[in-house]
Amino acid sequence: MKTIIRILVATSCLFMAGQAVALDAKAAEALAQKNGCLACHTIKQKVIGPALQDIAAKYRGEQGAEAKLIGRVKNGTSGVWGPVPMRPNSPQVKDEDIKLIVQWILTL
What we know:
Blueprint: H1 2-34, H2 37-40, H3 52-59, H4 65-75, H5 95-105
Helix pairs in contact: 1-5, 4-5
């Protein structure tokens, strides 16, 4: 009986953890929308800037990718994805919001 209860508890914890990740992704996407990221980027298609999935693919498995992308979002960048520069997003976007958005992008 104790084994069955442990299995049920473990299963429900895994289910709730999966929902928490989904809610974090929705929150991160909402932050990206609120802060204007999705005016130039979409998840699947290049608009003005690259698709967020393309960014994730380019940096997948790269050590230090999160810190690199946080810096690029905060300070702006040019020449990485073509001639159109990305404007700096600091100080109008909070550091913790940038970090959450970048972490979300890297999961796509």
